[in-house]
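Subgroup meeting minutes
Present: P.N., E.W., G.H.
Scribe: E.W.

1. P.N. recapped why we're keeping a running log of single-chain structure predictions: easier to compare across weeks, and new members can see raw inputs and outputs side by side.
2. G.H. added today's entry (293 aa).
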Amino acid sequence: MPEDEDTQHHDDEAGLEASDNNESLQEYGLEEEDDWAGDPKKMGFLDHLEELRWTIMKPLAVFFITFIIVMANIKRVSTLLMWPLREAEEKMGVTSAFDALATRNPMGVYSAMLQIGFVFGLAVALPFIIFYGAKFIAPALTKKEKRLLLPGSIGVFILFMAGSSFSFFLLLPKTIQITIWFNALMDYQLLWTPDSYLGFMLWLVLGMGVSFQFPLVVVLLVYLGILTADQLASSRRVMILVLVIIAAFLTPPDPFTQMMVAAPMIVLFEISIWLARIVQKKRERDLDTALAD
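Output recorded in log:
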């Protein structure tokens, strides 16, 4: 009997040790875990639809509320959006001929107002779209993947705002200055319409906001083991060429503006490699610790 009790005790200890090792392996993604928070299998099809409906409705509510507020303060918002143009005009010493945008048809002003309301509504709703979207897919993720949701969502918003701000306050005024200079060189009168100005501004601002997501994407891929820092470093020349091509696609056909867009993107690529090395070393360290335990 004592021998049987010792054997049973030994088996219990071995079971606890195996359980601890299994949890360590699950934590670093080496073994599929059984712990699913909010297990989607417990939800029926209609439950999923209901959850999806509320996931969509909440950001939509924020969008429409923002849209209404913008429409109620459209003059102030329009003045804010005109700042890059006014800044460029002041730096270039442009005369009163450039003082206002010009509509070509009676419906032009309504189109511009709707465009402004849509963009501001989308910008304010963006954090809510990210948050509720992440919350909706969270039950289908492992613990390791869930750890990325909150910092990843915050990172997306911060990087998007950083890229958009860089474009709005620095890149856009410089680009308009160059446009004004070339028009003056050719003795052309520059006449902006609301559609052309807002379209050009949104293309540049949103394009830079998306471009600034590059470091985050790289870090996530390295963290998940899909990409390595060495692979990034070895593709440096190709990536720089690709980034220059993207910059040329986003900007007017002048080398100065293209380099203003390409330079921060290249810097972000180098930062991505540096961050990738840090994340990769931490991942390898944690992996060795999990296997050792």
